[in-house]
Design brief:
Strand order of the largest sheet: 6-7-8-3-9-10
Structural class: alpha/beta
Distance between the termini: 36 Å
Shape: globular
Strand content: 25-35%
């Protein structure tokens, strides 16, 4: 079953075309790693999936909801986009936590805002369960400034998980962390994989990608240059651009 379907996605910034007819899909329970040089289109693809950037053309479906349809007169309305967005969790590389809120309230802010008619106790109980899952029970009342980078990233993951998204997207989840803290986050992501979470992960960490991804997509110059399992891409690359990228 496809959780994400992206077809013929195009995006330009001014005269520069960043995405050129990009198409791929992600199945339920699958972890897809996206790699490539900076400026190749990786993060723009992720931002277009959630409509943080508006594509120029193409089609994006999440579960049974159309997120974007670039054909004339086919664009979903704001309510449909809002409902589709709720099916996607996005974890940023720089955490994007609210400094004025502690761990618990950072996690509770979105569900309390989006679902004001659901009792606060429901989400509070759920948040505490996720916080325990993230290994942060002893930091539940701490503020972001009191947390390590790895702890902040785990809070960001918990914040995405509380809305039970069908798809969890990561933008360079380990780039702001030192090696020891990277290990904390990798463990959490591997645990999510073992639990069957569907994920798309943009990363420059090749060993991390090899560990967690079922399938890899290599972007170069705005197109999908090559795709396959981690072993196929790292051990038997076909594209000259991928060979050069791996060697560098």
């Amino acid at each position: 079953m496809e959780v994400l379907s992206v077809n013929n996605l195009c995006k330009s910034f001014g005269q520069k075309q960043v995405l050129k007819d990009v198409s791929f899909s992600v199945n339920k329970g699958e972890v897809v790693g996206i790699i490539g040089k900076s400026g190749g289109g990786k993060t723009t693809t992720l931002r277009c999936i959630n409509l943080l950037e508006m594509p120029d053309s193409g089609f994006i479906r999440v579960g049974n909801s159309v997120m974007f349809d670039g054909r004339p007169g086919m664009m979903p309305n704001s309510q449909q986009i809002h409902e589709a967005r709720l099916k996607i969790g996005l974890v940023f590389q720089n955490f994007n936590l609210f400094p004025q809120y502690n761990v618990l309230n950072n996690i509770l802010l979105a569900p309390r805002t989006l679902y004001p008619n659901i009792p606060h106790s429901y989400f509070a109980k759920k948040a505490r369960q996720i916080i325990e899952r993230m290994g942060l029970s002893d930091r539940i009342h701490a503020y972001p400034s009191q947390l390590s980078g790895g702890q902040q990233q785990r809070v960001a993951i918990a914040r995405a998980l509380i809305l039970e998204p069908e798809l969890l997207c990561f933008d360079e989840p380990t780039s702001a962390l030192d090696p020891e803290l990277t290990g904390e986050v990798v463990k959490i992501i591997r645990d999510l994989k073992d639990a069957g979470t569907t994920m798309v992960i943009v990363t420059h960490e090749m060993e991390f990608a090899r560990q967690v991804a079922d399938r890899m997509i290599f972007f170069a110059d705005g197109i999908i240059e090559e795709t396959g399992t981690p072993d196929e891409l790292f051990n038997n690359p076909k594209s000259e651009k991928l060979k050069t990228f791996i060697q560098s």
